[in-house]
Specification:
The complex is a heterodimer. Chain A is an alpha/beta fold. In chain A, 30% of the residues lie in helices and 26% in strands. Chain A has helices at residues 53-61, 83-93, 109-119, 124-137, 153-165, 183-197, and strands at 9-20, 27-38, 42-46, 68-73, 76-77, 94-97, 171-175, 203-207, 219-224, 227-233. In chain A, strands 6-7-8-3-9-10 form a 6-stranded mixed sheet. Chain B is α+β, with helices and mostly antiparallel strands. Chain B has 2 domains: 2-43 and 253-377, no CATH class; 72-231, no CATH class. Chain B has 12 helices and 10 strands. In chain B, strands 2-3-8-5-7-6 form a 6-stranded mixed β-barrel. In chain B, helix 11 (298-333) runs antiparallel to helix 12 (344-370). The chains are: A alpha/beta, B alpha+beta. The interface between A and B is medium-sized, with 29 and 27 residues.
Chain lengths: 242, 379
């Protein structure tokens, strides 16, 4: 457990269900998931392909509707909010890091990083200043005006992390952040994410099945067949982390 | 966000060029073909612009300005006697053959004006005096006539030169500017009496009567009164203009040919830009989904797509109209082609191009509207 980890809940998920399709084609992805993430921790959700971890990440992030149950993220009850308010919530409080980076190739790094600020209504000048400063923090000084395609995979993921953090979100959602990277680069990226999670009012949730990075987790939630099976780490089993 | 939307668009150079090119082509096709069409329609009404009168009295069966049936010589006096007519003057219009220096013949549109008042005179005199047309065997020829009848001569025809008109000598006493006739005939003006001498004698020689309403009478009211009292057909200038246009719409394939090309331009523009823009949105769907996940509302994304679509629309339209204008300048400099570009035409094309852009953007907006932000988490 990091020094910043508290017992305050960042994400509180109870009995969440989600089914894709209807009738005979219905596929239940989440079958009553109970799940918590704390403030100041880096929590990983792991499990085999198709176990529902990405679906769980999507509903926590407010990017996918769920059928039943309750989700509370930093005091905002997603289950009771209108879509417009959920969009507003994502805009202000959620940062995203994707497996394939999802940087817009025709924009410079600074422009990519400034996107969340612009969406939040910050002026272009201020947004680009903050974006440049964030890229410096991510160890990419002087690369702001380059296109992402000119950077290595690790550097692109740093740009993506800068984009996820530039508007100072409380919840950072990471989907397979190291699967497209080699071991060393993946290690550097995880060091960065651990540092990001040290913020006492922030929570970082990582979905992965890259067991090389399990050791970076404060806690590790293991899913199987649409349900949370075990929680490793504090208050739980340490085997997987070790 | 709008500057980023534009950078996203400009970054995909192939699609950007395709979109601008497609809309330029559509604008060109629609505007240029419409301008030629309007030019041709204007030619069909050249009698009206070259003779100018408020009331045109013709045979009761005449439906358009280029299809005149001869009246009796006394008909002009019948029109003059109608209440509500200030004055009425006879006009003789005929197509005659002019002989060229090389022995060939060219048809010309000969207009005989009232000897005294010269009502129906050419709109713009370039050289010579209008009144000299009263001199024996005199003709005022338009620029096209000078050009056509100068073939085979060492130097172009000028004032004082003569040529053979229907086996009679005609002397040029003036050069005027006149609108081109639909069939491409040059206009030659003479007096009514002399025009009858140039033309072979026929039983009835009066082509039409030009009249002016009396003070306190509108042209419409006077025309109605003429019809009532004489049984002849009396048109106001505006009525004859539109009657002529309608006649060509009903009785020739010209509108169908041009409207087909104009519609083709619209379809090509809509197809190219709609499909290309849709492909552009489709290829960027993942990025647009990421923006949506980051909190960009459907409204913001729709506005971004509209900015992209209308930007290529403005560019394509601007380049298209510029090219049409250049085309017009070039062809107008080479003579008097059927080309008319009133402001309403580019304005209408602008509205159509913007409609195409709105439609293209709408295709993308529907696509973006439906996409779930969770798409970004799928592999």
């Amino acid at each position: 457990m990091s020094a910043a980890t508290s017992t305050k809940l960042a994400v509180h998920v109870r009995a969440v269900t989600k089914t894709f399709g209807t009738g005979e084609a219905a596929v239940p992805a989440l079958k009553g998931v109970d799940f918590d993430a704390r403030q100041g921790e880096l929590l990983m959700i792991v499990g085999p392909s198709g176990c529902g971890k990405t679906t769980l990440l999507s509903v926590i992030a407010g990017t996918l509707n769920f059928d039943g149950g309750e989700i509370d993220v930093f005091g905002s009850p997603l289950h009771a909010m209108k879509p417009r308010h959920i969009t507003e919530f994502r805009k202000r409080h959620v940062g995203f890091i994707f497996q394939q980076f999802n940087l817009i190739p025709t924009l410079s790094c600074i422009e990519n990083v400034s996107v969340p600020l612009l969406i939040n209504g910050v002026s272009r000048r201020v947004a680009e200043q903050k974006a440049a400063a964030m890229l410096d923090q991510m160890g990419l000084p002087g690369r702001g005006h380059e296109r992402p395609t000119n950077l290595s995979g690790g550097q692109q993921q740093r740009v993506a992390i800068a984009r996820a953090l530039v508007h100072e979100p409380r919840l950072v959602i990471c989907d397979e952040p190291t699967s497209a990277l080699d071991k060393d680069t993946g290690g550097h990226i995880m060091d960065l994410l651990c540092a990001v999670a040290r913020h006492p009012e922030r929570s970082v949730i990582v979905v992965t099945h890259d067991n090389r990075i399990f050791k970076y987790a404060d806690r590790l939630t293991e899913m199987e067949d649409g349900r949370v099976q075990r929680v490793h780490g504090q208050g739980g089993n340490h085997d997987l982390i070790e | 966000m709008y500057h980023l939307a534009l950078k996203m668009l400009l970054g995909d150079r192939a699609k950007y060029a395709m979109l601008v090119g497609g809309l330029t082509f559509a604008t060109m096709l629609m505007t240029q073909q419409s301008a030629v069409f309007f030019g041709l329609l204007k030619w069909t009404t050249s009698h009206l612009s070259n003779m100018r009168a408020k009331i045109w009295v013709v045979d009761r069966n005449v439906q358009q300005a280029n299809e005149l049936k001869a009246l009796r010589d006394t008909d002009v006096n019948r029109v003059r006697s109608v209440t509500g007519v200030a004055w009425a003057m006879p006009i003789y219009v005929t197509i005659q053959s002019a002989k060229l220096a090389d022995g060939n013949f060219k048809p010309i549109m000969l207009v005989g004006l009232d000897n005294t008042t010269l009502v129906g005179r050419p709109p713009i005199m370039l050289r010579g005096q209008l009144e000299d047309v009263r001199l024996p065997n005199s003709i005022i020829l338009d620029e096209l006539g000078i050009q056509r009848l100068s073939v085979g001569r060492a130097k172009p025809l000028g004032l004082g030169d003569t040529f053979e008109l229907n086996d009679k000598e005609a002397r040029i006493v003036g050069i005027c500017r006149a609108d081109r006739h639909f069939f491409g005939y040059p206009y030659a003006y003479s007096t009514y009496t002399q025009a009858l001498q140039f033309a072979p004698k026929q039983r009835k020689m009066l082509s039409l009567v030009l009249a002016e309403p009396a003070p306190g009478w509108t042209a419409e009211a006077a025309a109605k009164q003429i019809q009532l009292e004489t049984g002849m057909k009396a048109y106001t200038e505006d009525e004859l203009f539109w009657s002529t246009i309608r006649w060509y719409f009903r009785n020739t394939g010209i509108p169908v040919a041009f409207v087909s090309i104009i519609v083709l331009g619209f379809i090509v523009g809509t197809t190219i830009s709609g499909q290309t823009f849709y492909a552009f949105v489709h290829e960027n769907l993942r990025h647009l989904g990421a923006l949506k996940a980051m909190g960009a509302s459907n409204g913001l994304l729709a506005r971004m797509l509209l900015v992209q679509s209308f930007t290529v629309g403005f560019l394509g339209y601007g380049i298209g109209v510029l090219l049409v204008t250049l085309f017009g300048q070039v062809v107008l400099a080479r003579g008097d082609p059927p080309f008319m570009l009133p402001w309403q035409l580019p304005a209408a094309t602008f509205a159509i191009v913007m409609g195409i852009c709105a439609f293209s953007a709408l295709l993308g907006i529907v696509k973006v509207w439906k996409v779930e932000p969770a798409i970004v988490f799928r592999g």
